[in-house]
Amino acid sequence: MHCQLTGREPGFGNRVSHSQRKTRRRWNPNVQRKRYWVPSLNRNVTLTLSTKGIKTVDKLGIEAVVARLRQQGVKV
């Protein structure tokens, strides 16, 4: 999964054991589905956001974030 606002995606790398054997692993971002009420649309909008994305919505406001996502071509 990835964040719709910040674009955060899983990171990939190696799991290294004590004997230095390397196997592939991934680091998943803390992505959550969050529902917001958007007064201009008069409905709820569900976004898939990382925790940094949630803080950004709290700072800028949901109206500005929805406008930005629509400008990027994301269906909201």
From TrEMBL:
InterPro entries: Ribosomal_bL28, Ribosomal_bL28/bL31-like_sf, Ribosomal_bL28_bact-type, Ribosomal_bL28_sf. One of its GO terms (molecular function) is structural constituent of ribosome. Keywords: Ribonucleoprotein, Ribosomal protein. The keyword Ribosomal protein applies. Coiled coil: none annotated. The keyword Ribosomal protein applies. GO terms for cellular component: ribonucleoprotein complex; ribosome. Residues 1-26 are annotated as: Disordered. GO terms for biological process: translation. Gene3D superfamilies: Ribosomal protein L28/L24 (2.30.170.40). Pfam families: Ribosomal_L28 (PF00830). Belongs to the bacterial ribosomal protein bL28 family. This is Large ribosomal subunit protein bL28. It comes from Lentzea aerocolonigenes. The lineage of its organism: Bacteria, Bacillati, Actinomycetota, Actinomycetes, Pseudonocardiales.
